[in-house]
Amino acid sequence: MNTDRKARWAVRQSALPTIVRPCPDCSGNRHRPSGKIRVNASGKLLDVWLLLSCVRCDRTSKVTVHERAHVSSLDPERLVAYENNDAAVVRELTMNASLATRNGYRLDWTDSWTVEARTPLHSLDDPTPLTVRVVFDLPAPVRVERLLMLGLGLSRSAVRRMVGDGRICVPYALDAKAHRDFELTVRTAGSAGAVAHTRERLPQPTLAMRAGA
Ligand SMILES: [Zn+2]
């Protein structure tokens, strides 16, 4: 008899990642795109930069997108987008992992994603186990602990406690990062409470049952 409840969580992007590299003017290292792209022409050669602002001091700095690229090597539509500070292209460049590698900085995706729970988890007291399918619509790995906190609306300590006593079964360590779809199971407060209650009164049979499971 399969009476499992099922839910689906979508991990979605809610903001751009932060670009992490030292600011030349202050001790900060977090940058946001300024929304602008600069194109500099020297004859037929073009330099293209994504402009960033330091989160702390607002200093503008540049990320090299194209360096001395011949104008004929760039897609004309793309070039127009650069010249118009096209917002979609700014977003794309900001999230571009290979651009980050090439320019020697890191992307920090903390606080740039959210969990959209298609089935609201209003009934954590329901004793039926809940199977959650987690699907990723985000081009970056996320910390499993934070995913559970957001998905279940629980504090860090509550998540740790529930994983510790087996009420949440997740195929990752809490401090691991996940980026592929996976399933987790939540045995809810009601059922766990019942187990704890039973264990207090009948410790041996319960332990035997668990060992035999
Ligand atoms: Zn700064």
From TrEMBL:
Pfam families: DUF1062 (PF06353). InterPro entries: DUF1062 (IPR009412). It comes from the Bacteria. This is DUF1062 domain-containing protein. It comes from Streptacidiphilus jiangxiensis.
